[in-house]
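Appendix C: a fully annotated inverse folding record. The material below is reproduced so that readers can follow the format used throughout the book. The structure is listed first as tokens, followed by the designed sequence.
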């Protein structure tokens, strides 16, 4: 507001104002924020640079794997420790650009990070099989990279593997592993990341680690500023670890929920420490100033702070809790129940956000349907949108089913602690309230999904109605075009009649011109021989020359019509045969076969899947085809070597019986393909047999009125039979 700007201009010191101007202004022009190529850019008309606001600052640290005893089997192997390597981070660097003000430090820190991933008994079995839990050589190095060339003798993967070793497991219920991360870091940064990971059938994933050192701080006085940067790095690396261990279907579910940004998915932090500096009562940490700001870096928005005893305090936030005190680890069962439920709550929140996106998508589809006439390509786009949305709804229904089953399968979240301090923490963390809320929210989202599915079905029916309307319009246009074509045919028919009349008139003119040339109206009739043989006998007699002219006209006209009828008769009879083949062929033999033919046309049609070729030729060997010259058209796939279809056509005289039957023409052509090596004998025989006309079986009675009777005769000297009804 103007008053706010005026207040800032009065109270903001010149030094701080200059810092803001240096950040936001270049050459006197304000920088604009642009999202481009998956990165933020700060630019003006003449200047551009990439923003580093999303870059995470790295610190050197050493951690050891940790899992609570309640998650382990009794007598299992002892977890690894990197305490002897704690000093390795002390001499290394960090990429922190700010000057840090340490307000709160904690000591002997243990961190439990939780998330929920759709899991079930089959996924746990698949994970154990992938890890080789029952084999002699367990674990190994894992990556999410897919080997696209599995038959090659080598496999190259990007730098960054995960070493996994098995602690204990149950084939269908849970798996406890240690995972050591080998991801590349910036020069000068040392990060020894060794996690304990617990996965179980209800979908709860727990990552546990003990902080040995952060920079030069070994166990003691760990700054919350540095701890926040450690947590960001651990969140991303733990997501990468699970990406290499999950199944493809689980990765698809997570990609759908988080829109492909699975590496940065939300997780819940449980930070356990023995002591804190400064030591105060719980409510004093929520001072809405320096103390609370540091807590927000690791817990998100802070909610409450409580004193559990004289030495133990708990602080809750939107993304975790911090439990500080000498007896803090005694409450691990309560913290694990909270971590499991809060992880589900965070996941449900992301699912609910995904429902909003689906709702917006359906609203956009409805708007496209309402305005489909403005965009001719809207219907295919609408159908694609509805198809993708329907797929997302199916996956969301599966996710909600996993969530509901996980609440039924996990018995630990229903157990209430019996000791006073544990029950006090149970009440502070509101475990029972979170559990009840989850049941209600999951049931409510199932109703929302059901409504979304009905909406998709309704929109699909609307799209089908629009498509039917467009098809009806197309049919109306075709009907109109057909009426126009029929009218044009009638006009052509009348023109054809007029042409016949003109042909008769032309024949008469031709006849008269012939007589004129014979008589030689200009000079011949004046000669003595013309008077003796033409003028006196014919032209001098009344009406005789006219009768002769009419007779000549009739004779010429009859000859012209006979010639035209003969020409039409030559092409009026047609024998056609179309065969759908779909058989493999030898393309090299086909090329040799076509090189011996008089090809008159070739046509190609190719796309990403097929490359079809159409070739036509006229047979010249009339002896093979009973005196005919059939035109043959062949369509074949040059990419996969398949003969798709064959079309054969013979033009013949309509007034004479055919010397070649369609079936015989088919048999001779495919026999020729077999002899040329184009088709295998079995394939050619199969095509001939599949399209052979039905033969009356021996002993079968045929009603005479259901079949026509023909007499086959053969003229001496001819090789073919003629059928006479």
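Designed amino acids, in order:
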């Amino acid at each position: 507001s103007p008053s706010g700007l005026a207040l800032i201009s009065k109270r903001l010191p010149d030094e701080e104002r200059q810092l803001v101007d240096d950040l936001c202004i270049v050459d006197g022009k304000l920088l604009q924020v642009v999202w481009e190529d998956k990165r933020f850019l700060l630019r003006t008309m003449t200047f551009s640079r990439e923003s580093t606001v999303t870059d995470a600052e790295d610190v050197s640290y050493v951690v050891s794997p940790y899992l609570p005893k309640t998650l382990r089997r009794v007598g299992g192997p002892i977890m690894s420790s990197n305490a002897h390597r704690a000093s390795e981070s002390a001499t290394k660097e960090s990429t922190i650009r700010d000057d840090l003000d340490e307000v709160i430090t904690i000591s002997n820190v243990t961190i439990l990070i939780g998330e929920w991933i759709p899991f079930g008994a089959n996924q746990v079995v698949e994970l154990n099989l992938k890890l080789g839990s029952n084999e002699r050589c367990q674990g190994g190095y894992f990556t999410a990279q897919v080997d696209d060339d599995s038959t090659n003798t080598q496999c190259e993967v990007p730098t960054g593997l995960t070493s996994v070793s098995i602690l204990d497991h149950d084939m269908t219920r849970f798996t406890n592993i240690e995972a050591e991360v080998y991801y590349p870091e910036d020069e000068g940064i040392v990060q020894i990341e060794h996690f304990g990971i617990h996965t179980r059938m209800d979908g709860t994933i727990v990552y546990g680690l003990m902080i040995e050192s952060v920079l030069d701080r070994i166990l003691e006085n760990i700054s919350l500023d540095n701890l926040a940067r450690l947590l960001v790095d651990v969140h991303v690396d733990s997501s990468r670890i699970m990406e290499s261990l999950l199944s493809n279907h689980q990765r698809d579910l997570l990609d759908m929920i988080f829109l492909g940004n699975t590496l940065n998915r939300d997780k819940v932090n449980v930070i356990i420490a023995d002591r804190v500096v400064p030591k105060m009562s719980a409510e004093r940490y929520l001072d809405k100033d320096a103390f609370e700001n540091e807590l927000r870096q690791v817990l998100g928005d802070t909610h409450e702070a409580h004193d559990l005893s004289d030495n133990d305090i708990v602080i809750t936030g939107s993304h975790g809790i911090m439990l500080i005190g000498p007896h803090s680890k005694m409450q691990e069962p309560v913290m694990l129940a909270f971590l499991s439920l809060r992880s589900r709550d965070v996941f449900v929140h992301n699912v609910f956000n995904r429902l909003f996106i689906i709702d917006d998508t359906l609203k956009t589809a409805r708007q496209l349907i309402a305005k489909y006439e403005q965009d001719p390509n809207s219907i295919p786009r609408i159908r694609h949108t509805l198809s993708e949305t329907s797929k997302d709804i199916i996956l969301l229904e599966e996710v909600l089913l996993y969530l509901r089953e996980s609440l039924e399968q996990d018995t630990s979240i229903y157990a209430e602690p019996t000791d006073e301090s544990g029950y006090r923490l149970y009440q502070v963390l509101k475990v029972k309230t979170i559990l009840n809320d989850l049941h209600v929210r999951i049931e409510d989202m199932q109703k929302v999904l059901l409504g979304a599915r009905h909406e998709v079905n309704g929109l699909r029916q609307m799209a089908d109605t629009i498509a039917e309307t467009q098809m009806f319009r197309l049919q109306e246009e075709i009907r109109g075009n057909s009426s126009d074509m029929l009218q044009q045919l009638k006009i052509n028919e009348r023109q054809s009649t007029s042409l016949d009349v003109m042909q008769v008139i032309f024949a008469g003119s031709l006849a008269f011109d012939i007589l004129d040339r014979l008589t030689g109206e200009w000079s011949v009739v004046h000669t003595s021989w013309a008077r003796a043989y033409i003028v006196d006998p014919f032209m001098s007699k009344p009406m005789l020359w006219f009768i002769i002219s009419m007779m000549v006209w009739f004779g010429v006209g009859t000859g012209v019509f006979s010639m035209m009828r003969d020409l039409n008769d030559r092409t009026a009879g047609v024998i056609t045969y179309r065969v759908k083949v779909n058989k493999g062929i030898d393309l090299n033999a086909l090329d040799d076969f076509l090189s011996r033919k008089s090809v008159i046309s070739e046509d190609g049609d190719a796309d990403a899947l097929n490359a079809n070729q159409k070739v036509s030729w006229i047979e010249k060997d009339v002896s093979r085809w009973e005196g005919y010259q059939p035109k043959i058209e062949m369509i074949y796939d040059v990419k996969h070597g398949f003969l798709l279809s064959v079309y054969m056509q013979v033009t013949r005289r309509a007034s004479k019986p055919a010397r070649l039957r369609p079936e015989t023409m088919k048999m001779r052509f495919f026999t020729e393909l077999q002899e040329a090596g184009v088709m295998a004998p079995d394939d050619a025989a199969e095509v001939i047999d599949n399209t052979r006309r039905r033969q009356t079986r021996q002993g079968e009675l045929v009603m005479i009125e259901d079949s026509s009777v023909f007499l086959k005769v053969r003229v001496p000297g001819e090789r073919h039979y003629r059928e006479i009804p």
